[in-house]
Design a protein that fits this description.
By secondary structure, the chain is an alpha+beta fold. The chain is built from 13 helices and 12 strands.
């Protein structure tokens, strides 16, 4: 015998369905206090229908792209989100929906077998703060979606995706750089680095910002005011240090997206740094993305170096 659902349960069920584009999982139904008898009743009356084991939808639930992505995410039965170009489509960065819906789950989760037309990938680096809700659909943040797209996309396509995200105001270049840094050695990282390298005007603007953030953070922390673009004569010629304490012979270099991007660039930067060290300088290097996202890290490192020189 099926019990009548109280009004509070019905209200919470409707709220859950509305928030998830008419989809709900068995675990969520249980959390609302429903049992198998209630589920059978709702199914018999046509209020909900089963999509796959563990996933249900209302009869009038939209079957558009966002609805399909929501089904794909919920069907994983894990902490999951739309990923890569699927996430970019959800955010509105791109107009064309990908042929395959891409979903990412945390590495510690074992998702259910994916729905047809869905690709599920586990990630060791997925964190809660990298997932946002877009029209109710969980999706990775834009910078994460861009970097993860390097797994399956070539450099020209990545350059196109980054340019669209920048032009649309969805993300700033330093955010993408910071995400690339924290993502580690993901497959395709070199392709994304190459794509960023080819965005010359945007790269230059971002580097200028990173240097400004570093300068202001050091001054705000009460450290001595560094000299910007300090000129130093080296055997290979005159170079400029991003931020310098000449009296302490301490150089602070802000590495851009092209850092280590090619063997030639890496060799040139290593030679430059070696010549600075041979001239009596100590060199501290920081990634542009890390400087913008976490200036306190730079301040702490520079403060230790300054105190050590006192």
């Amino acid at each position: 015998m099926t019990r009548n659902l109280d009004q509070d349960t019905v209200t919470r069920l409707r709220a859950k369905l509305d928030a998830q584009r008419g989809r709900v999982t068995w675990q969520q139904l249980e959390a609302l206090g429903l049992d198998q008898h209630d589920l059978d009743h709702l199914s018999r009356t046509g209020l909900i229908t089963r999509v796959v084991p563990g996933l249900w939808r209302t009869a009038g639930a939209p079957d558009d792209f966002l609805g399909q992505v929501m089904s794909a995410v919920l069907a994983c039965d894990a902490v999951a989100a739309a990923a890569r170009t699927t996430a970019l489509k959800v955010h509105g960065v791109i107009e064309r929906a990908p042929a395959t819906i891409e979903v990412v789950v945390g590495h510690g989760h074992r998702p259910r077998p994916p729905l047809p037309g869905v690709s599920v990938r586990r990630s060791r680096t997925l964190t809660d703060d990298q997932i946002v809700s877009v029209d109710g659909v969980p999706a990775t943040i834009v910078e994460r979606a861009l970097v993860d797209s390097a797994i399956t996309s070539g450099t020209p396509r990545l350059r196109e995706l980054v340019a669209k995200a920048l032009r649309g105001g969805f993300v700033q270049l330093h955010d993408v750089s910071a995400q690339l840094e924290v993502s580690g050695r993901i497959h395709g990282a070199r392709r994304m680095a190459a794509a960023l390298l080819q965005l010359d005007p945007d790269v230059a603007a971002s580097e200028s910002r990173a240097e400004q953030v570093a300068f202001e953070a050091l001054v705000r922390a009460g450290l001595p005011t560094p000299v910007r673009q300090f000129a130093v004569a080296l055997p290979d010629g005159m170079i400029r240090i991003d931020l310098a304490y000449p009296d302490l012979r301490l150089a602070i270099e802000i590495d851009g997206f092209w850092w280590h991007s090619t063997p030639q660039r890496k060799a040139a930067d290593e030679r430059r740094q070696n010549q600075l060290v041979q001239a009596g300088w100590r060199v501290l290097r920081f990634g542009a993305g890390r400087v913008v996202s976490d200036p306190a890290h730079l301040v702490a490192e520079v403060a230790r170096a300054v105190l050590a020189s006192a």
